[in-house]
Write a structure and sequence with these properties.
Layout: E1 5-8, H1 12-25, E2 32-33, E3 39-43, E4 46-51, E5 67-70, H2 74-86, E6 90-91, E7 97-100, E8 105-112, E9 118-124
Parallel strand pairs: 1-4, 5-9
Antiparallel strand pairs: 2-3, 3-4, 6-8, 7-8, 8-9
Length: 125
């Protein structure tokens, strides 16, 4: 449905440490850094990019925005979450686990990256 996802960062090296760790935990590769300093992650056919804002203003997280990353297993979600916390992210909301709704059962794990962007590892049960 979309071609890519991009988040802003105030510290690209700090973001690289965080995102390299979270992508490695789920079998991804470290970032490719382009000539503009942007980090590019390619995983499962999608692109995830990290950049300093082009308008020169500080990066801020989107209010109400969550970026969901599909997981193959609950163990993969747990590894992603643990790697993110170890690499400077913040665990948020409920601990990783199963969430039931009237329409589906999901396994969710939430983090904020070092710049405050809200991320969610999601495994459909």
């Amino acid at each position: 449905m979309y071609s890519h996802m991009m988040v802003g960062s105030n510290d690209i090296e700090r973001s690289k440490k965080f995102y390299d760790a979270t992508f490695a935990a789920i079998g991804g590769n470290p970032a490719i850094q382009d000539d503009k300093g942007r980090l590019i992650y390619m995983y499962n056919g999608g692109l995830f990019l990290v950049t300093k804002p082009i308008d020169g203003q500080p990066a801020t997280p989107g209010n109400g925005m969550t970026i969901g990353i599909a997981m193959e297993t609950t163990e993969q979600a747990d590894a992603w979450h643990a790697a993110g916390v170890a690499a400077g992210g913040t665990a948020i909301e409920d601990p990783p686990g199963v969430r039931d709704s009237a329409t589906m059962t999901l396994y969710l794990a939430y983090l904020r990256d070092p710049d405050g962007n809200k991320l969610c590892a999601l495994k459909r049960m």
